[in-house]
UniProtKB/TrEMBL annotation:
Ranges for domain MITD1 C-terminal phospholipase D-like: 75-222
Protein name, entry field: MITD1 protein
Stored InterPro entries: MIT_dom, MIT_dom_sf, MIT_domain_contain_protein1, MITD1_C, MITD1_C_sf
Gene name as annotated: Mitd1
Gene Ontology biological-process entries: midbody abscission
Amino acid sequence: AGAETVKRAVQLDAASRFQESLVCYQEGIDLLLQVVKATTDEAKKHRYRQKISELTFLSDGKYHKQIRIEENATGFGYEKLFHEYLTEIVSEVWVEDPYIRQVHQASRYSLYNFLRFCEMLVKGPCKVKTIHLLTSYDAGDGRSQQMSALEEIKQSLSNYGVTLNIDFSSSIHDREIRFNNGWTIKIGRGLDYFKHPRGHFSIGYCDFDLRPCRETTVDVFHTKHTKKM
């Protein structure tokens, strides 16, 4: 499986399909690392490690892609936006956003959007086991509602074998999402780039692909990420 994945990565690289090739390189590296752990033959381990080093060099090129979401555009639900990067080897996710707060703050990243994002992770195809959330405390009376909602999400995720770690910072400013396969996604508005639906029974209320968006930019980066050999 590892050899076929690497072969596919090389083909995609040659075709200048760099985003897809990076995904295949990372999956190939992960599969070869599993082989290294399983084998007791030191000569084979050495050969596999050499191959992994070569693949790491090939996959370590800087990558940056920018997606511009226009005002009122549709078709940018979370599954559509993230599916290319949520490969099967993703097991850990980091979400940093200062405004995971009250549900009714129209201009801010809502708790419901974070819940929707977590639902996407639970559905797969990735095998996420841990989600790290870094945000800031809500002010005044909103804090108790914020804590109650986050605790409910945490308990619900635990029913699916997913651990939610929550930390707070008073100085956090940037918004970004990171996956442990090396992909980082920075959205100008965080996950709250959707317009609020006109009513509870409006098209787009449940299906985010049909919900109009607010104008924003999405920057996608890839960084070197391999486990220790």
